[in-house]
Design a protein that fits this description.
By secondary structure, the protein is an all-alpha fold. It contains three helices and no strands. It has helices at 3-11, 18-38, 56-78. Pfam families: DUF3098.
Length: 83
């Protein structure tokens, strides 16, 4: 095999398999959901404090979802697509 044939053969292959990309997509959706849940809670009037900023959704749930999403991304990178 010449160098051109080897380069052409490896050029058409993806780095990850379809399974890996699907897991990565799920991880990105979980991360995006975490950031969406973290948004908001501010007040329209800057002189008024809004207690809603300290609710369970923004303090516990949203950061946990972001961390779970990052763990899913790491799993997607390390998963073997041939199994």
């Amino acid at each position: 095999m010449s160098k051109k044939e080897i380069h052409k053969k490896t050029e058409n292959e993806f780095l990850f398999g379809k399974k890996n990309y699907m897991i990565m997509l799920v991880g990105l959706i979980v991360i995006a959901l975490g950031f969406i849940l973290m948004a908001g809670g501010g007040s329209d009037d800057p002189t008024v404090f809004n207690e809603e900023i300290y609710n369970f959704q923004r303090i516990r749930l949203a950061p946990t979802l972001v961390l779970i999403g990052l763990a899913i991304e790491i799993y997607a990178i390390l998963a073997n697509p041939n199994k």
